[in-house]
Amino acid sequence: MSGDMHPHTVRASLYTAEQRRRRDTTPWTFVQGVLAIVQFAVFLVSLALVLHYLLTGEGFLAATISVVAKTIALYAIMVTGSIWEKVVFDRYLFAPAFYWEDAVSMLVLALHTAYLLALLFHWLPEREQMLLALAAYAAYAANAAQFVFKFRTARLETPDTRAVDVISQNPSVTTLPWGAAR
Question: Least packed by Cβ within 10 Å: which of 24, 35, 45, 104?
Answer without folding.
Answer: 24
